[in-house]
Amino acid sequence: MDSSSSSSSSSPVNWEALDSLVIEFAKSENLIEDDTSSPTSSPSSSSYQYRLLILQIRRLLQSGCIDDVIHLLRHHAPSVLDDHRLLFRLQKQKFIELLRKGSEEDRNAAIDCLRTALAPSALDAYPEAYEEFKHVLLAFIYDKDDQTSPVVNEWSERRLFELAGLMTSVLRAHLHAYDPLFSMAIRYLISIHKGFCLRQRISSPITDLTERLLLEERDLPATPQEGLFEVPPFDEVDIQALAHAVELTRQGAVDSLKFAKGDLFQAFQNEVCRMRLDFTTLDELVHEYCVYRGIVNSGAPNSSFQGMEVVHEPSESNQTEPESTVSTDFSLDGSSKLVDTDMDSPDAEERYPCGSTMSSHEDCSTSGVYRHKASKLLQRNHVRGTGERNKRKRWRGRDDSSPQDLKATKLVNVSMSEEQQVSEVSSVVDAIGNKEDTYEIMLAVKELASKGMAAEVVEGINDMDPTFFEQNHILLFQLKRIEFLKLVNCGDHSRALKVACSHLGPLATRDPALLKPLKETLFALLTPNEKFAGESLPFHALSTSLQVAIGRRLGIEEPQLMKIMRTTLHTHNEWFKLQMCKDRFEGLLKIDLLKEVNSSLLADNLSKSSGDISNPTSSQGTATSNSRMPEDGNSPAQVSSTVDVASDETAILKVMEFLALPRADAIHLLAQYNGDAETVIQQIFA
After folding, report:
1. Contacts 24+ apart (CB under 8 A), 185-188
2. Higher pLDDT, 356 or 470
3. Which candidate in 44, 307, 520, 540 could, as Cys together with 342 as Cys, close a disulfide (CB 3.0–4.6 Å)?
4. Chain centre distance of CA 393
5. Rounded mean pLDDT of 184-208?
6. Residue 618 and residue 552 in contact, taking contact as beta carbons nearer than 8 Å
């Protein structure tokens, strides 16, 4: 497949901005060890502890432990129980769960619950509550396994999961325990991506990832208590923006705004967080990205040998197992919380063993050859005193394992002989060593390029692999262009012209597409007094392109998270072109920063294709041979030329509201009827 199909379905990404979001996410979720902050000292510590509390309540509800939930709520969020609707639902579920246990003692406890808690709460919960109370009494008569009974829905365990989702939504808003920006942003981007692909009738090239990551089900929405406060009429612009951003009905958007007391952005956060993520998959993607970008160590701190004990005495297997879940005595002051274990979560394991990241024609044995040839590159990076390796954090992983899982794992380890364990550790260490070699070379290239050391990067790469730039001539052009501009900046025009004559000119002759950026580059000679600030040069964008290309040469595929971000940011752009408006929420989630790619000194076609052209036969994971996002007759450029007449925002909103249409469809209809909303509505209902 050619690279053009890839570039049509991907957009440039500010990887430095993504690094910041990912690091903030990893710190907020306590996934990495960080000397500067911890869950008990960082500004987000209360949010982290509250998120743990909410997770514990969700799990307790899903297990039917209603009394434990009520105990936690009374201790940490008593005002939530002032909502009689929630209290009634909890008591009704408690009644069902007591009957579900089936013993005589539990049946008597259910009757007691009925008299002392459920009946009183049914009187003032909501108008239908007393009818529901009388209906649930039928559970005394009909067995839980009777699928034809009138209370089959009351017996359904799905009710537990619905209640858990509802309570999660309520507590998240009540405690302001929102997920980190990155996890909200990726939910939102994938949701838009799915909607765009469905609407445009195209297949997504990242379906396998998005289906695993963003689950179909959503938590139930938290709804406002009627009559507690008067809500002024909401701006229709806000209602429609919220409804279409998170796929709500108009009434759903109104209810969400009521619950947030008119705060559009809080309502948006409430709705985005209702989308369910598979955090195991998310953590794997983040860990893979962090290793690739040099944020965390490239070793495998959570591999099978980590935490494995060499057993000298059988008595070690009888030691008390650490708790890894939050007890019902959960404390927000840090006195009682999740206890870290010697073994990190298996979710945090390295995504690929040494061999699996290699392409079909390479294996781990090449890493030693490359490391020997790349010694100058590594030495330069070390001599420059970057200290990047020392800045990397250790990945801790999310501690979601149960005590039973830990015990089973340890028993397996104990059953192995000491010789077997030592042998397994040695083989894993060897594999990690080889892999770390290749990662260090790749990261050395990235770090030197990010500091603008273009000449040193070219020399180092040529020393390591003389054929690299023959297949990646645009990357060479970009590096030599930076070298040229730096020399001009220093006033060394003779050396700058030598670089232009020796490299930039021949490369532009080879590829006519480079002639325009070459001319723009030479203009720097006409402004001798103008200095190019380091931050104005495209160091970071180029360093990432080089990292991807050199990584592939070493057999390291780029992280799947990079593929997701390229593709979803592209569809985000295309979606709002179709909607002919700006995304009101992209600033809140820092999506606008992810799109800020400095291309002032780099031609657009180069900055967009630099990641793809490094391997013309590969799509960078943003498109496949049977999955493409083409620009066809429905392209935003063609649509926008037909809707100039529909410039009245009031008319657009009126058609959207009355006909429950997306913004783009409303604009299309208005364009057909000269922007007259009344005519559009009459024609539709005629």
Report:
1. 185/21, 185/589, 185/590, 185/591, 185/594, 186/213, 186/214, 186/277, 186/282, 186/564, 186/568, 187/214, 187/272, 187/273, 187/275, 187/277, 188/245, 188/246, 188/272, 188/585, 188/589, 188/591
2. 470
3. 307
4. 20
5. 95
6. yes
In this structure, what token pair is assigned to residue 604? 């657009």
The residues, ordered by sequence, that sit 6+ positions from 382 with a Cβ below 8 Å of its Cβ are none
Distance CA(29)–CA(9), nearest Å, equals 31
Residue 161's pLDDT is 96
> Could you give the C-alpha distances from 19 to 151, 393, 513, in angstroms and in order?
51, 13, 31
**Token couple for 266:** 């809080």
At residue 10, the pLDDT reads: 63
Burial of 620 (0-12, 13-18, 19+ CB in 10 A): buried
Minimal CA–CA distance to 62: which of 200, 132, 167?
167
User: What is the distance between the alpha carbons of residues 331 and 75, in angstroms, rounded to a whole number?
Assistant: 9
Residue 39 pLDDT = 47
Give the residue among 22, 21, 31, 33 at the shortest CA–CA distance from 348: 31
The residue ranges of every structural domain in the chain are 45-175, 453-536, 642-685
How far is residue 66's CA from residue 81's CA, in Å, rounded to a whole number? 13
H/E stretch holding 152 reads: helix 152-155
Inter-residue contact 169 to 270 (CB < 8 Å): yes
pLDDT of residue 421: 44
Specify the 3-state DSSP secondary structure of 363: coil
Give the rounded percent of residues in the chain with a pLDDT score beyond 90. Answer: 49
Task: Please tell me which residue, 164 or 609, carries the higher pLDDT value.
Answer: 164
CA distance 66 to 94: 6
